[in-house]
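Subject: Interface between my chains keeps coming out wrong

I've been trying for a while to get a sensible model of this assembly. When I model each chain on its own everything looks fine, but I need the whole thing in one frame so I can look at the contacts. Pasting all components below, labels as-is. Any help appreciated, I'm running out of ideas.
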Amino acid sequence: MPSASLVFQSVVLGVLLGGLYALLAAGLTLYFGVMRVVMIAHSAFLILAAYLAWYAHRETGVDPLLTLFVTVPLFFAAGVAMQRLLLTRLRPATLTMMSVLLTFSVALVIEGLLGYVFSGTQRRIRLDYSSAGFEFLGARIAAVKLIAFGMAALALLGLYALMKHSRFGQALRATIQHREAAQLLGIDTDRVAGYGFGLGLATAAVGGTALALDTTIYPSLHWHWIGPLMAIIVVGGLGSVPGAAIAAMTLGMLQSLLQLELSTTWAQTVFYVALFATLAFRPQGFFGGRLAQRF
Amino acid sequence: MRTTHRLQGGITVGTLALVLVASGCVSGGSNSEDSPDDPIVIGVSLPLTGDFSEPGKGVERGYKAWAKIVNDKGGLLGRKVELKILDDQSNADRVVSDYEQLIGKDEVDLVFGPFSTRLVVPSARVAEEYGMLFVEPAGAAPEVFDQGFKNLFYAAPAVANDHYNHLAEYILALPADKRPRTVAYAAMDDPFAQGTAYGLKEKLEKGGIKTVVNEVYPPNTTDFGGIAAKIADSKADMVVGGSQYQDGVNLIVALQQLNYQPKMAAFSTAPTEPEFAKAVGNKTEGILAPTGYTQKGDYPSNKEFVEKYTKQFGKAPEEDEANAYTTGQVVAAAVKAADCASQDPECQGKMVEWLRGHQVETVVGPLKWDDKGRPQSAHMIQQWVDGEIQIVLPEQQKEADLIYPKPEW
Amino acid sequence: MPRDSEAPLPAGEASLPASEVSLRAGGTQLRAGETPFWAGRLPRLGILLAVVAVVLSFPSMAPSPYEITVGIAILNYAVLSTSWNFVGGFTGYISLGHGGFAGLGAYGTGLLVTKTELPPFAALFTAAVLVAAVAVPVGYAALRVRGASFVIVSIALVLILLLVFQSWSSFTGGSRGLVVPRPFPGMLRAEHHRTFYFLFAALLAAALLVWWIIDRSRFGMGLKAIREDEDKAQSLGTPTYTYKLVVFVVSAAFTSLAGGLYALWFGDLDPVFQFSILSGAYMVLMALLGGVRHLYGPVLGAVIVGYALEYSKVEFGDTPLHLVVAGLLLGVVVMFMPDGVIPAATALLDRFRKTGETSIREVTAAELRERRGQRNGTEEVRDSERSGSGSGTGTGSQT
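Reply #2:
Try treating it as a single job with all components included. I did that and got this:
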């Protein structure tokens, strides 16, 4: 049996990891909500943001967190452009299937270009505080992990506030809930959908920077992320941001705890087991609404 | 309906044309007549892109350095050597089709091995079945030698499981009250990396030293928090990492984040990389690593290699480069002994036969092999002492004394 | 035309009696009475025979065993993408996870040979049956919900299989890989390649034949109805869920056969290469590029993609740009010719000669819409499932 302190340590690690999952899954949920699109390239953009943070740090020595001021707007614009220029041109009847392939191809292009520009070498940002940590109720928390979690939590709170309390957020939620009805209310749903897409991609920018603080990055890393993220959004109920966040925290924690008894590889399967179980027994997801029923 | 049929006919014709063009593309081999003036063409497939691209490129540099040095001296058997290098994209399908192409279509005279155990086994089978000598720079895992290959030779001092032999001897020779009592192992799920860690594990367990953690992580692991937590919680006296490069760095940083202070820490490959110290924020003190090659190695050909390699590439060679160069030296020795270099089965057979019974002088020292192609030497053990990695074992080659217990990192 | 959309039949009636199959196997698209002999049957038959002759004589023309291995690789691609097309082409459900079934077939065959000492080809077919059995629960989970979840499950399938086959090393060999013994010990390598070239060609012929049979069956009509408009197909009484599941299992079984045959030929299995999303994506790319509505579409796609990948490797050398090429190719296909090059080329040809009435089977939804416009929408919905979709979504084509 693992000692109590080790279990607590794992819980802490699980929470820190779950926060990042939650932010990234929120982005995926947004795309799905506004466009019914499964965005395979989400994690490729995540890795792209991480590379930009790493590159900026290596070249200029700036703190990776500062790159957010560039990458967040940049990714927002890229998201809007991607929605406008690529996804809206697909036939509506086949949008869901074809958008998967289209975003898949975007992911391949990003991976190939990252490999071309930065080579396949694994990279890691070297920070002065990389190995720093502090005690917390007997558990030890790495400074970088806490910063990453803080970023994710702040971004998620910001997203929540934006969606709940701004006019744009209301329009976005209306578009997600019922596009035609939103149109009848005078909402420019195309524009809102574009912004929603941009917002989703902006979460990848924040997530990527957080990721770069504490882990190694390499071009094909995105495959490693997309599986768990997709499992999270299905378990959480496609289209539900709070559902995705809860599922992310739960599964992140489970993965961390399972690592105590199982090997790292087996622990990762928890995401897929949850995914298959959800689809077999509760296809609409555990926290999802009406949306998930048909998709 | 007529339209439909014509169109389908057109499509079929199109397909046919493509097939024909296709078969045209792939045919048309090179001429194979050997004449004394023709260069000796050596075929290699290397992972220049994909997961193994970093070491793959190192091996490529080693081969290129060897070819240049040989040609500058007038070549082999009076003929120039020429490398034909294909990229296998770190993919086993490709590596097989590459060797198939090199041997069948391009009709190279000799082949060199690729990088990584995962690619060595399938490609060695191709060479074996075409009766070609197969000397390889990077398949150190035990299963490489269990396949019954008769033409395979590993051009490095020792197989993966023997990398830590000197360290195991040192630990087991310590007085019982000073020895580490518990050890935590973490190895990448890779035949080579696991081989190094488990070779040591087996010997230490036999000596009565307890294993308290035994973790395997997939090659794509980037977050080592969980594994590090387990190791730190076990408070093991010693930690052994069966690592490649970046995973070793990550694990060490994760252990440092948890403020885990073992008495001894050994990691394969990672600590010998030039970037290592910077990558772990210079907290390297006391970390041990096995190595098969040192630039200071006191062998005649090594001085030449280091000097000319540095001139050609602007930096000193590392282990991958050295192993590739060793491969070249081994094959060259066989070519000279057999006095031939061609696909002719008799010639290849003569070279294999000769290598079975002879020792070859290389940049990693004199090498000889058992009947399965396993080299019979041992790896040296290096340790980070005073901010520099130095050889501490075996006694006769040491540059510094092994520090035990290791200082805090 | 064997068409009766009102009363969809159970899947069991889908396959035609063997005798009828052999009569039709010459490759004619329609019954002989409907078309002039010279215009349809003979040239098509001749061309088909010519292609078969070229394919069969290729190994003896190849200057070295290497060319045969290239031929095997392309045949393998062709079998895989044709197998994929059972699901993708008929139902329009796009699976990115068929690489998983190929890997399962390969490992299944390899493990049966090494652990139970079944004869290699018995192991191959046993593995295919086992994979088909695995495909049932996977299909059950994946097909209950439409679209997005299906794709997610298909990707998850590959990822979970990779994890399982890596972790369960005591059984699968893990990252050490699995060595599958040669089915014909003692055979020289060149002869080994030649034998497997013909085995792959035979498997391709079998896959094409089954696809062709389904294409003309009521079962096939039901599946295509799902592709065009699943809701309408369902309301017309097609047991859509059963149909989808059956064809998914058939597709998995063929994919598994391709994977298993590959394992027997290649000999070395490694989870990383066997369970790769990329190989599944290549299947999709090949089928889409060639045209999923056409029997030979995936084969054509396999030939094109096989050479495009080879070319980009030669051209761009040691850079990962082949990924960019594959990505761009996939993007272009999805954006500009989602029906594949065959319809794209057809449309081009159509501009030059607009003749005669085409069979309703062979028009794309876009063409249909055009024609419907000319007829001012007088077509009855019950005319066929296909036209039903046209009225539903405007651009109802799925592929």
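Reply #3:
Confirming on my end. Chain C touches chain A through 52 residues (CB under 8 Å).
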